[in-house]
Amino acid sequence: MTDKPMKVGIISCSGEAIPGGTIARVACRKVLDDLRPTQCVTICLPLFIAGGEEERMFANTYPTITVDGCEKRCAALGTEKLSARPAGTLIVAEILRKRGLCPITKLRGLGAEEKDAAQAVAEEIAAAIDEILGAE
Amino acid sequence: MQKKCRKVAVFACSGIGKSLGTVAREIGYELTERVRPHDTLLTCLALLVINDPETQKLITENPVIVIDGCSLDCARKSLEANGAPLVKAYQSIDFFKKHKDLKPEGVAELNDAGKKLAALAADELAGVVDELLRGGDDGQANESRNHILQR
């Protein structure tokens, strides 16, 4: 018998210097706070890379979804390097392209356009969680 | 002769679980966009985990200001582990202790008090940027986290 995972860890790149990092971060919080509060936890990437044993253990034991703000994919590569290969990897720019949304240019003070982008990314994360938790 | 530095690299923890992580991030923005836009450069902390060559060069050739959200000091530890020789480290919680009337709330979106706290913290860090660019630090910056706070 295969045990289904009960929780998924979400790891956002949070990239401070890129608008995609802001969107990734806001979207992850939206999933945790509103969309899938009981099905996921967020893993703090700074703590994870600084050697947080609990975070690394979680990512080794439970499936994770990484959300990156740019093509450098720091969250995905970092998770694989420090713990285990993520079950899902998302990139903000790819989601926005797929949804026909404009690239985001603001780092903070999000307006309607940025909030729409964050909502779109959050919905993709939620769908990825459902897929993982629903998988046999 | 001390080497003249062109920029101060700024890193923030951006911890996703606490308001103080968001405050750290906002301090980074205030410092690099409003207070000292020409002398500082905000860089993604996550780049350290992929050993990004440009980031490695930046932190080894320039002074660094790092702002952590809490006492775990994740960002500072990551910078030191990556060989940054000159790091001035601060925690946003220390700025909050100085301005207890400005209680930050919210992670995805910081409240007005949190934004004001970040702006005040960035104003206080302006002097640190200037000092670093003058070459006024002797390389033992890690000892000086409370430098501003005890002034």
Task: Give a description of the structure.
The complex is a heterodimer of chains A (136) and B (151). With 136 residues, chain A is α/β, with parallel strands linked by helices. Chain A has a single domain, classed as Rossmann fold, CATH 3.40.50. Chain A has a four-stranded parallel beta sheet with strand order 2-1-3-4, sandwiched between helices. The radius of gyration of chain A is 14 Å and the shape is globular. The termini of chain A are close together. The mean pLDDT of chain A is 93. Chain B has five helices and four strands. Chain B has a four-stranded parallel beta sheet with strand order 2-1-3-4, with helices on both faces. Chain B is globular. The C terminus of chain B is likely disordered. At the A-B interface, helix 1, helix 2 and helix 4 of A face helix 1 and helix 3 of B.
Short synopsis of the structure:
Chain A contains six helices and four strands.
The averaged pLDDT of chain B comes out at 88
Give the termini separation of chain A: 10 Å
C-alpha Rg of chain B, in Å? 14 Å
- What is the count of distinct domains of chain B? 1
- Which CATH class of chain A? Alpha Beta
Question: Could you tell me the mean pLDDT of chain A?
Answer: 93
Given the C-alpha coordinates, what overall shape of chain A results?
globular
Strand order of the largest sheet of chain B: 2-1-3-4
**Cα radius of gyration of chain A in angstroms:** 14 Å
Task: Say what oligomer this is.
Answer: heterodimer
* Tally of contiguous helical segments of chain B: 5
Beta strand count of chain B: 4
Largest sheet, strands/sense/barrel of chain B: 4 strands, parallel
Q: What name does CATH use for the topology of chain A?
A: Rossmann fold
Cross-sheet strand order for the largest sheet of chain A: 2-1-3-4
Tally of helical segments of chain A: 6
